[in-house]
Amino acid sequence: MPAPLSAHERRRMRIVSAGMLVGVLVILGVALCARQIMKPAGVPFVSWFAVGFALVSPLLAAAVDRAQPDRSSAAPGAPSAAFARHLVSYATLEAAGLLCGVALLIGSNLLPLAAALVPIGAMVLRFPRASALS
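Above: the chain sequence. Below: its structure as tokens.
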């Protein structure tokens, strides 16, 4: 059974996760506002790539979260393995959401906005709770 996270690590994990989630929401909001001001040129490849990555990102995040890193070379005072796994898996979801925001900025359709709900939903479901053990 994995060792429980310290209260300090849980707090840091919640702060970082909240910042990442808010960052995705801000980029999507900016992209929606920018679409009202200027008409996007329309780059369909980016939109389809963003949609594909958004749909696959929860699977990638789950695979990263199940990885067992080699902690023998970890520096003293380094974050726990659970903290590192959470951060990397959350970054995968954040990248998918940010790519959807960019595709929304330069693409001609709103499909990336709908696809962004997948990584955002996964981020909300994976958000660390105050009583998370690992």
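The first helix runs from residue 7 to 37.
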